[in-house]
Design a protein that fits this description.
globular; alpha/beta; Rossmann fold; 385 residues; 2 domains; two-stranded antiparallel ribbon; 14 helices
Length: 385
């Protein structure tokens, strides 16, 4: 598939660019929309019953987080919310494929990946409520702060991956030491210069980074057909590294493909582009009205490919989860919803000087001077009516 030095063998197109019977690019799949298990020649793997139930639990709870946050925004408790409805499998599959020592760079929609990294979802709500700038330490979770600037995080990810090379944590053969970077972005961001620049640097320096594109087919109101004449994963070959397209509504395939790509990066064989082909079943954010630019037939068709429903069918059909499991999970989801609602409403308003916290890892003299000056300004209002 690839050479140890990161070069590409003659079978690259055969392995990474096979065609389906209808002539379209292959969609790597391990679980069909009907819940049938599929065995792929390159990416098949065995999953335990515990793993499968764990994937299902993750997706159900992450969807509940999304539903609750949307409702909180509608009730005026959040300023905005970026929905992930329909993209749970892409996020959980990729998130669970990463090892603790890997570092993840998200956009502003990776709530499922944040869940996999152990982040309290209330920390996400604080950002969208406007009471903090992202209330978590990236080094604690190996999960960067959310990035609002479209595509900027891919350059950050590539630079971080190059740093890993220089720190000697790539290609050592030690599974507890070797690490890689997982960089998330959407199909809309793929049109940004930052993303393409990050591809160039990653290829040039053979950086250990997996570019994970959730192609939900809509860059706000712009369809993917207007952004790219070819499938997005095929762009990788033009930069000199492999690309794959996986069924982003198939949590098993997403996990297997991302795991393989991350291991390739950890082994020192360079970057990979993974295109998770999915669909944004909700709105771009809660300020968006998708009925203005897309037809309802498409939404209904993609509902039949729901990532949670297909795994539920598989679990039930194969006797891998009983009714008690589903009942307990429903109670857990309800309890999580209650915690989010009450926790969000109880968040205190920020203090004016909080804006200076966590700007740098080490506070600079310039920042201290700015903070002290602002504090002196605020003091002039004390006692004023």
């Amino acid at each position: 598939m690839t050479h140890a030095d990161g070069g590409f063998g003659p079978d690259l197109v055969e392995v990474f660019g096979p065609r389906q019977e209808d002539g379209g690019p292959e969609l790597i799949q391990l679980l069909s929309p009907e819940g049938e298990r599929i065995h792929h020649p390159e990416f098949d793997m065995d999953f335990s019953a515990d793993q499968l139930r764990g994937f299902y639990r993750d997706m159900v709870l992450v969807r509940r987080i999304d539903v609750e946050a949307t409702a909180l925004q509608r009730h005026g408790e959040l300023g905005i919310w970026a929905q992930l409805l329909g993209q749970e499998a892409a996020q959980i599959g990729a998130g669970r494929a990463a090892r603790p020592q890997d570092f993840v760079f998200p956009t502003y929609r990776e709530h499922g990946v944040a869940w996999c990294r152990g982040l309290d979802p209330l920390k996400l709500l604080g950002l969208f409520r406007g009471v903090d700038h992202g209330d978590w330490d990236p080094s604690e979770y190996n999960f960067s702060l959310y990035t609002i600037v479209i595509g900027a995080q891919t350059l950050h990810a590539t630079g971080y991956a190059m740093g890993m090379q220089r720190d000697g944590v790539v290609g050592t053969g030690d599974p507890e030491r070797d690490a890689a970077v997982l960089a998330h972005f959407g199909d809309g961001a793929s049109s940004q210069g930052d993303v393409n620049e990050s591809f160039i640097f990653a290829a040039s320096y053979n950086a250990p980074v997996v570019f994970f594109c959730q192609n939900n087919q809509w860059a706000i109101s712009e369809p993917i057909e207007r952004q790219s004449r070819i499938p997005l994963f095929q762009r990788a070959l033009g930069f000199g590294f492999p690309g794959l397209r996986v069924d982003g509504n198939d949590v098993l395939a997403t996990y297997a493909v991302t795991q393989a790509a991350l291991q390739r990066a950890r082994d020192g064989q360079g970057p990979t582009l993974v295109e998770a082909y999915t669909y944004r079943m909700g709105a771009h954010t809660t300020t968006d009205d998708p009925t203005r630019y897309r037809v309802s037939d498409d939404v209904e068709r993609w509902k039949l490919k729901d990532p949670i429903a297909r795994l539920e069918v598989y679990l039930k059909r194969n006797g891998l989860a009983d009714e008690q499991f589903f009942a307990d999970l429903a109670e857990e989801a309800a309890a999580l919803g209650h915690t989010l609602r009450e926790g969000c409403k109880a968040m205190p308003d920020p203090k004016p000087l909080d804006i200076f916290d966590r700007v740098y890892s080490e506070t600079t003299p310039e920042l201290v001077a700015q903070r002290d000056g602002f504090a002196a300004y605020l003091a002039t209002f004390e006692g004023a009516h």
